[in-house]
Design brief:
5 strands, Heat Shock Protein 90
Length: 585
């Protein structure tokens, strides 16, 4: 028997919907805003929204530094069974995000014109853009804070709460857009304000769990350790560099389009970006799920699990992105027509063709983003910086500068495709240099050092699917221990503990409501024998169960008492919906 990818595949597919929806929901709000803006206010409103995009990207960059750094560190600490350190990171992260968001909100609320003028570059656009920024300023805090809380809610498998919050936010944004813009004629200020109010409601739904005392990972000012800040920033910056580059790229692309095609080019790009963030949600969701899982397996030094995560992301995730890209190409006319009704206009033609060309770039972009997030999670920061700068700025801007004089706006359109070709070549070249051979295998492209993880001859990985396999697995564990030179007594105890715990999981956890499995890992390291049992059944904490047992009644739960009596150390956690029980014998 050997380990398989069933638990990882189910876990990846369980995480994927909420990761996609979190990106998609804000994009849906943007789509709603864009449709209302273009059809009720006018095309100039879409231009204002497009000019606001780089500012929002800067805010997302600041948020992403803290989010990605904190998420990766928390995943690693959970993988190392250090819950207290996880709460240290979480508390510092929430405090910093809140402080930054409040400061930026005050600046945009009190001086929106000072922000709008450099973004616009033209006096006629400043007033509308200022109004939009003022309305959006009320939502910066709930928007940034909600993104943080959502990431941590997923660790506790509270996706349902996130779904509810998303539904409330989307419904209220649509209703308030109509009320503020159509009936109260509040213009672009009302458009931004409706987004802010809906974001506040989303935060209320999420925050009621985190700050209501029910969360496993809790915020506390006393838990804040400022010495963790350099680690958060160091890990978070590489991923945020791409977001920062995208903000600068937005400014550069707007300038190039204004020069070669005027308002029509900027409006077309604004429409694509409005839907593009929604379409990118699939890619972003796959990448976020990958980053979260890779960080946990990296913390566990589980080389096999890490590679399985990447294979699942490439095979399952990219396939979903391909399906979406085909739909985008097929319905490009409908997507363009939702913003611009006149099919004879230049802006409609540019927008329709942009959607078609963008769909060609989506699959290869997904592969590149998955690898970039993986490199960030395994601390390959130099590679992340290179990919971020090329993908986020130079690939599109330099190609656009070369092509636009000959192709107009289409030079930017095709640069989006070429950009992903450049990053793909960099990933393959990086693996070739590190491995000193050419290969397109996923584990070779990751290029993990040979020293990472426990050598194959010092570990045993097995997956149990049924009660009949438990006894066989117990014998395999004892045989492995004897092959490692471990004394007969400890070898017998290891097999006995495994059999007791696995039998208990099969009996009480395999409830017939779906296929379940148990991943067993036995590691011989530094003369310690580490036994880790991981399952995807309902939560069951054996340590909590031990604390509730009557010490006088030694006949109750004999097996559990035996396991704790034989183990030198035990640890339990429920991470991403997985029960993880580790014992040292």
């Amino acid at each position: 028997m050997r380990t398989d990818s069933r638990i990882i595949t189910r876990l990846f597919l369980r995480l994927l919907p909420v990761q996609i929806l979190f990106v998609a929901i804000s994009s849906i709000n943007s789509v709603i805003d864009g449709i209302v803006a273009s059809n009720i206010i006018g095309v100039h409103a879409m231009t204002a929204i497009g000019l606001f995009g780089p500012l929002m990207k800067f805010l997302e960059t600041l948020n992403l530094v803290l989010l990605s750094g904190s998420q990766i560190l928390c995943g690693q600490f959970l993988g190392k069974r250090q819950l207290e350190r996880t709460e240290n990171i979480f508390s510092l992260d929430i405090f910093l995000v809140s402080s930054i968001a409040v400061l930026i909100s005050l600046v945009c609320l009190l001086a929106p014109t000072a922000i709008a003028a450099p973004l616009s570059g033209r006096g006629s656009d400043v007033k509308g853009l200022s109004d939009y920024i003022r309305g959006m300023s009320f939502g910066f805090l709930p928007t940034l804070l909600s993104s943080q809380l959502s990431a941590f809610l997923q660790l506790e498998q509270k996706q349902r709460r996130i779904y509810i919050g998303m539904g409330v936010m989307m419904a209220m944004n649509f209703i308030l857009d109509i009320v503020f813009v159509r009936f109260l004629t509040m213009g672009l200020f009302g458009l931004g304000l409706s987004t802010s109010v809906s974001s506040i409601l989303f935060l209320i739904v999420l925050g009621s769990w985190h700050f209501g005392g029910r969360s496993m990972i809790r915020f506390s000012m006393h838990r804040i350790r400022w010495t963790d800040l350099p680690s958060i920033v160091r890990i978070g910056i590489p991923g945020a560099v791409c977001s920062l580059c995208l903000a600068f790229r937005g400014l550069a692309v707007n300038h190039i389009l204004m020069q070669c095609s005027g308002d029509a080019g900027v409006a077309a790009m604004s429409a694509m970006n409005t839907y593009g963030y929604l379409l990118y949600a699939m890619t972003a969701g796959v990448a976020s799920a990958t980053r979260l899982l890779v960080s946990v397996f990296y913390g566990e030094e589980d080389r096999t699990g890490l590679v399985l995560v990447m294979r699942t992301a490439i095979r399952k995730g990219v396939l979903l992105v391909v399906a979406v890209s085909c739909l985008v190409f097929a319905f490009s006319g409908i997507l363009a027509g939702s913003f611009y009704n006149d099919q004879r206009s230049e802006v409609y033609r540019l927008t329709k063709d942009l959607f078609r060309i963008y769909s060609l770039a989506m699959p290869i972009s997904a592969v590149c983003v998955i690898f970039s997030n993986c490199f960030q999670s395994i601390s390959r920061m130099g590679m992340v910086h290179i990919l971020s700068v090329v993908d986020g700025f130079f690939g599109v801007v330099l190609s656009g500068l070369v092509l636009c004089p000959f192709m107009g706006a289409y030079g930017i359109w095709w640069s989006l495709v070429l950009n992903n070709v450049y990053t793909s070549v960099i990933i393959v070249a990086h693996a070739h240099i590190r491995n000193r051979r050419f290969s397109l295998r996923i584990d070779d492209l990751i290029a993990l050092p040979g020293s990472f993880g426990v050598p194959e001859d010092r570990r045993l990985d097995i997956t149990i699917h049924s009660k009949e396999e438990v006894t066989d697995t117990s014998r395999l564990v004892m045989d492995f221990c004897r092959d490692q030179g471990i004394d007969r007594r400890r070898s017998y105890y290891a097999g006995l503990c495994l059999e007791e715990m696995a039998s208990n999981i099969v009996e009480h956890g395999f409830d017939g409501k779906g296929s379940h499995s148990i991943d067993v890992r036995v590691v011989h390291k530094d003369d310690d024998l580490l036994l880790r049992i991981k399952d995807d059944c309902r939560a069951f904490n054996p340590e909590e169960k031990m604390r509730l047992l009557d010490p006088e009644d030694i006949t109750h739960n004999i097996g559990l008492r035996m396991v704790h009596g034989l183990a030198k150390e035990t640890f339990y956690s429920n991470v991403l919906g997985l029960n993880i029980f580790t014992m040292t014998i």
